[in-house]
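Task card 7
Instruction: Convert sequence to structure tokens.
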Amino acid sequence: MNTDKTKPVEILLIDDDEGDILLTQEAFKTGKIANNLHVVMDGEQAMHYLHKEGEYRHAVTPDLILLDINLPKKDGRQVLAEIKADVELRCIPVVIMTSSKSEQDVLKSYKLHANSYIIKPVSMSKFSQIVSAIEGFWFSIVVLPVDESLRKVV
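Output:
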């Protein structure tokens, strides 16, 4: 995890909606914190990225994951469950960012140990506000683990 304010924050966005990806990229470009936003568009790619497999063998471990729950190939709920079951990944905060307002989706996400659940706004200004709040909370207020080797100790 990155607590060095001189290094960019590594963020993994897992979303299959190109419009939402563009909104997220734009919102993070105008954000206050230097970041590298990496994007994968389905659940299988997400797990390959996180396990540094195949084309993702040189991927960086993200400091934060933004996860849509409605994904092709492997559902976001499955991805969340796999992340939180993996001793090397479970410490990475996972923020659900989805258009679903379903109470069942909210409850299931928290039962699978999501760190937060955010309903995607429609407007760019609201989207920017949410990204700013994510940045402020996860990278200015919260203390995240630094040493990756310690993730296995629990």
